[in-house]
Amino acid sequence: SIIGQSIKMPPSRLDGLYRSLLLTKFFCKGWGKPENIERLFEFRKIISNRAACSQLIPRDYPVEITREEVQSDCKILEGKFITPLEIYMPGLVPDVAQQAHFQVVLPLKWNDERYKPICIHLAGTGDHYFWKRRNMIAKPLLKEANLGAIILENPFYGLRKPKEQRASSLQNVSDIFVMGGCLVLESLVLLNWCERNGLGPLGITGLSMGGHMASLAATNWPKPLVLVPCLSWSTASSVFTEGVMSHSINWDVLETQYFADGNFRERLSKMVTVVDDAFVAGKQFIKNFDQSVEELRQDIDEAKDLVCGVATVDVNLTVIREATPELTDEAQKEQQQQQEEEERKQLKSRIHINRTN
């Protein structure tokens, strides 16, 4: 399958060489404080539950618009708010990252005032500030589809980057979990803000790491939401352990910390061993994916046979139409008349046979 082929592809040698030549390394300070990791993994149980997570963010969560600018082709707003993760997990988010900064790109005029579509754009690895996503993604979509955009600055990036951090290289393993927790909750804040301001339909997207974070955020929104994760997967673990990012991690520091303290090693091993319903369901889904698709294909074939009386071999799984669409009043009346006419013909036929006998 395509999925299987993509997993087995060897990492790019050029990317590996590029990462190995960079002077900055990820996780140069190690794992982070064990108590912080423990708190994060406990909080994960809450934000991985949609019902519980959506209740963490009130609809009127305070958001401040700090600047408005009308340009020749669009209207740009800038705003900020306190990241909810700092409220629920105080002390985990660096001071400079506690203010979530975002930029909104809106059309000068909506094509239809009833529909004001807008999409949140989350950053990929190394995507600092707003200009790249604004000029390369948001503005082209605005021009082509009248689609607005919200560009959220990642924690540990751009305006939210700690001074001692070099470029995009997070200093602790725990920082990446802090980043994820921030983005999930901050996305919910922005989705609520959109609804309060009459914007929608709503969507969320991201490239690479941004796509993964967008997927996490989307699962915690309890309403219809368009999700477009680009060049991402359900986990980044293989990228860090086997892929191109493995060349940019300070493995010596992580190994030294891990084996230096037996108590720390035991606590960390227990924390990262994730066995819950969602994880097991995901493994089961991938294991039986091909069989599930084949069963779905058979179900569609059988449904079409029942409705049309003709078997179809090639079924397009991307478009599954209703097998029994509702009929209009006129169509129902016409169908009923046809049935009555057919019954009259059958009755006349039986009468003719009886008379002949």
UniProtKB/TrEMBL annotation:
Region (Disordered): 327-357
Matches recorded under SUPFAM superfamilies: alpha/beta-Hydrolases (SSF53474)
Composition bias, Basic residues: 347-357
Superkingdom as given in the UniProt entry: Eukaryota
Name the record gives this protein: Protein ABHD18
Organism of derivation: Anopheles aquasalis
